[in-house]
Design brief:
Length: about 525
Amino acid sequence: MTGFVVRAPWYVRERDGIDLRDPKSVRPSIQMYDDPQFVSRLLADPRDSLKFRTDDQWSYPVPVANPAGRTGRLLFATSTLVHTNIRKLYQPNHSRFYAVVVEVFCDEPGLPRAGSHEDIDLRLVLRRQHLSTSGAKRPTRRLARNLLVELAKQQHNLDLPAGSDPDVRDVYWADAAWQRRFAEDNAELIDELAPHTDVEAWMVGAAGGQWRAVDTEPEPGRPPDSEQDYPMWRLPPRDEDCAAARTRSLWFGLVPTYSADHSVDALGRSSAKLDEHGIYEVQCFVRQPPPAGHEHCPPKIWWSQPSEPFRLAAAYDPDGTKNRTISVTAPDLRRLAARAGQRQSGGLQISTPPKSGLGPVPFKSIPNARSRTPGGDSICMFAFELFFLVALFLFLLFLPIIVFAFQLWWLLALRFCIPPSASFTVLANFFAAGGVMADIGMPGFEDATAALDEITGLPGDPAAGTPGGALLLKNQADFVAHPDRLDDLVAAADPNLAVAPPDPPPVETKPADPLCR
């Protein structure tokens, strides 16, 4: 009976200039898309996918001082990113979707194409690399920091502050292309670390799922389980394919980048199946059922090599969330007022158990257990718009407080209003006319002061003697020592200078099929 081997698809080999004998060809290929309907794109042309960029490599934020020469938005960026060579896959809510594609060959001299075999099917599994170390904490930390120092110097010509303290699981082991020189320079620390990596499979059964080292038995008392696998589908020949190309056996499957599954250990602690800390890989296998008359025999299985390792972006990864815009219209107060004159129906219905009511409390006192309203046993209906209005009010109220309390000036560079407020024009004219920080709050500069109040989101009340954002900024140590930074802060928050449409993601090249030349 013929055996089978799995290789990267022909167009990936053509694109990278490798052949079937090259070790790089044995890995399944991961392809990226920006549309949930990407399967139709894949079926129309398997070569048509997005090109991986620097944003698709795992990165680490490292703290940097404000070096000389930085202005505008960069002046308030207290961290920068250093990139490793490990792939990063984003979640579906980041508008990124992934397929794994392979080509099947007969395991015979010359590796004939397996397109004539209709008696096989393919599946894939997702596996995790688990790092364990037996070294002490100090050499572990030193080794991790040494790697970040190396990467920061290579990519940004920066020296890390002495206080940076990364974790070895997130830095040391994540760089797939570990440099020999670095290993030689840090050989003593690596020996002290004593790292060991296990490849784990997600096992599912009556007791739920858990990660466990491949080919190991469940712990005593746990019911039998088996590794979770996912389907793959054969790519049908296209009308434009030549006769030789139709003998190919191309298959694709979906790479799982999100899961709601959790595992529970012996102590009852729950952990997510997938998270941003694990290092994962996809592995495919060919399955061939037994021939007629031998149905009692198990199917034969041939495994591929693992794909390149990758990590998964967190749900709020900034490089992922920038790929997608979510639009929400605030409730129209006029329409709500009109609705208030009608009989109510619909909304959010909340049932409160007895003695569980959380009623209103006086603003001048802090509630405690004895002042809690002992009400409850009621059903209240609230319009959804009420929840949104209260949440929006609290957000706008606390944003400037957080900015000033923790001096997180760069947060102002993440809030944009379109069309931009006229305040940016007022301040631009103020600086162009030679205005300086000392003028803020002085007679004759009321327009500039009010404009800065609006930009910071903290209006003042001169009649009541309440200082606004402008005067609070003026008294901050950073701006007292560097008054020219005020101009940079305004420029960082100005949507005229900061907001730009995203660049369209580049697409992969489409090499010609060598069988059809």
